[in-house]
Every structure is written in C-alpha cells, then in structure tokens.
Design a protein that fits this description.
heterodimer; A: 81 residues; mainly alpha; 3 helices; 0% strand; B: 137 residues
Chain lengths: 81, 137
C-alpha cells in the first residue's frame, strides 16, 4: 500500500469534516511526519481509536461518519504493520 | 431484526462463502482466505457469546447461501470480495444504532471487517485505500 493512497484518504476525511463544520474551521497545525512505517501504523491506530470515541459520543448520522474514519484508519494500520 | 442480527447473518454467509471459494485459490490468496475464514468464525463465536451473555436467542444460519457458480480462482476472488464488502457494509449500517452497547459492538465489528476487507484486497492485488469502507456507492 502506497503512503500517497493513505494521504489521499486523509485528505478526503479532512475535506468532509471541513464541509460539515462550516462556517467554523480548525486551523492547520504543522505536525511532524511519522519517522517510519511502525510510527505511521501507531499514528493510524491512535487516530482510529480517537475517531471511534467520537463515534460513541455523537448523534447517529455523525456516528457513522466517525465510524467510517475509525474503520478506514484501522485498515491503514493493519496493512502498514 | 437488530443491527447485531444483521451482522451475525452476514458473518454466517461469509463463512459459507469461504467454504465454497477457498478451495479454488492458491498461494497468497489461499493463505489469506483461510486466515479470513478463521476471523469470520471467531467473530461469529464472539457474537454467539454476546447473545448467550444477554440471555437472548441468536439467529441461526441458513441451510445454504447463494454463492453463484464458483468454478475457478477468478470467480472465487470475485465472490470473496463481494462477501467482504457486504460484511463491512452491514456492520457500518449498525453504527447508526441508538443503543450505546449495540453501537459499540457494531463499531468494533465494523473496524475489524474493514481490516479484513483491506487485507483481502491486498492479497489479490487490488487497491487497498478506502476512506469510507463499506459505504454504498
């Protein structure tokens, strides 16, 4: 699996969340890229857990959206590892 | 039918399909199919434990499922891709459940099924990335 494919998934997630949040927005903070595949898999796992927690604490429509992000990132972590 | 009932039914159908398809595969695809078959059986068993713990009666599997004609590796791959997509889509739908316990169960199963789908796609050389696993097109 190419990292560019994973990045494209994240861009799709971000664009969707940004659209739903309008007119509010979240500033883009500079974050350091994971150092290696192991770090990237760990970041994907952490992101999946965070999205799953959001899914559990929101309304049904958004629960599915956050669930999708959690599932997508869990799949990223599995194939990177 | 609850979302959990639907998910268990999808897992039953997947186990049946792997039984029909895996024999036509070899190499990495066969190895992965056998591993995924075991995962579906594990999920089924966990779900049956869930019903037992709740004192509820679990739905039973059908006597058979329509798998179409599976005569070669290409047909087997197509069937198993369809099965993995169906399982993932079924658990995804369950995440909309309003009962928190059921939502949590469906969420856990949905993540596990998205991982299975990705691993299967990787084994047969398909694109793995998917921002919305199981979302209807």
């Amino acid at each position: 699996m190419g990292y560019s494919e994973i990045a494209e998934d994240h861009r799709t997630h971000a664009a969707t969340l940004e659209r739903l949040l309008r007119p509010n927005s979240i500033s883009e903070d500079e974050v350091e890229a994971p150092a290696d595949a192991e770090a990237l898999a760990a970041a994907e796992t952490a992101g999946s857990v965070e999205a799953a927690e959001s899914s559990m604490t929101t309304q049904s429509d958004y629960a599915v959206l956050f669930g999708e992000i959690a599932a997508s990132r869990a799949a990223h972590a599995a194939v990177i590892a | 039918m609850t979302a959990t009932d639907d998910g268990l039914a999808a897992e039953y159908a997947a186990i049946y399909a792997y039984g029909a398809a895996a024999v036509h595969l070899d190499g990495d695809a066969r190895e992965r199919a056998e591993a995924l078959d075991a995962e579906h059986r594990s999920r089924r068993d966990a779900l049956l434990d869930h019903y037992a713990a709740a004192g509820a009666e679990a739905p039973q599997p059908a006597a058979g499922y329509d798998t179409g004609v599976v005569a070669d590796a290409a047909a087997a791959q197509e069937l198993l891709t369809s099965v993995e997509l169906n399982v993932t889509a079924t658990w995804r739908a369950g995440v909309a459940a309003t009962d928190p316990d059921e939502r949590q169960l469906c969420l856990d199963m949905y993540a596990a099924s998205a991982v299975s789908l990705a691993r299967w796609r990787l084994a047969i050389g398909q694109a793995v990335a998917d921002p919305w696993p199981g979302r209807p097109e």
